[in-house]
From TrEMBL:
Keyword Transmembrane: yes
Entry's Gene Ontology BP terms: polysaccharide biosynthetic process
UniProt name for this protein: GtrA/DPMS transmembrane domain-containing protein
Cellular compartments per GO CC: membrane
Lineage, uppermost ranks: Bacteria, Pseudomonadati, Pseudomonadota, Gammaproteobacteria, Moraxellales
Topology of the protein relative to the lipid bilayer: Multi-pass membrane protein
Amino acid sequence: MIDSIRLAMLYTAFAIVATFCNILAQDVFSYIYSGPFYILVSIIIGTGVGLVIKYILDKKYIFKYKTQNAQHDGKVFMLYTVMGIFTTIIFWGFEFGFHAIFETKEMRYVGGVIGLMIGYICKYYLDKRFVFRTV
């Protein structure tokens, strides 16, 4: 019981870190670039930043998964990314939806945070079942 509570708290903390990095990357990019498609590009960049950070933390601390070599690590990361496509659709749906409804940067970020929270819950179960498993 304590192990599962500890795991949930750790996973939540890592989700918060990755979410913060995602939103920060979006905000920094939006500050630097305000040209065509800046919102789409900022969301893609933020998604990439959050993905890499969350992968590193999940692999090491949540699933305690050790890859055999760089090639194996690349394959695991690709599978992790594929599992993230569904959860990214949830995240982007909320972020773009809030942007369309409220038309402010702040509310777009609120939508992004809500979408990421829902997505990370789904992602844990997908990763546990399909990505970080022993063969």
